[in-house]
Specification:
single chain; Arc Repressor Mutant, subunit A; four-stranded antiparallel sheet; alpha+beta; 3 domains
Length: 221
Amino acid sequence: MVNTEACLEVTNLRKVPRRHEFELHLSSGEAIKVLKEDVEREGIEIGSSLPGRLLKHLEQRYFYTRSREIVERLLRVRPRTAAEIRRRLLREHFPKDICDKVVSELESDGMIDDLTFAKLWIDEKKVKEGRRRIRGELLSRGIDVSIVEQALELYYDDSNELETAKHMVAKRLGRLTGLPRRVVQRRLYGFLLRRGFESGIAREAISCILDEDTWEGKDES
């Protein structure tokens, strides 16, 4: 931590390979990274004597600029939640106050939006997963429970979740042809629960499909 009340001498100045930044070694024994443009603007060289407050400011500018670069690169790949961004920056050892500032700015700019993320996630997953599983996935990505519930309400009710479960049962049946009915029921029930469907939805979907004329399994005597 740079002493903001001291005046420190630059004892070494090392250009970081392939990066527009320098590593400043200080008379206090500390080393900080500073943007190349700041080194040039302030005329920093070996032997320069710099106020601690200036050094702290330059270090904060470095943290902020680099953290923004990382986040913008991540967002070009896919949308992220605020919590995912914050965890990634902390893992890169950026100070918490810088992480919070960057996330807050990106939320204000609309580049991070947890509700939009949740809607996109549900839209992609709803054809193959139940509400319970999707809810858990969104919560694990750090989205607030109230936002998760708001997004789920836009997509799910008992009727459309039942239709999804029935569709999945119908597709799964092809792998179970020839097995006794009780075995098929048990396997389908476990399959739907693992996919995040509630037990009542799972039972109803299985009953609906197995009662249709297309069922070719063996009845048990």
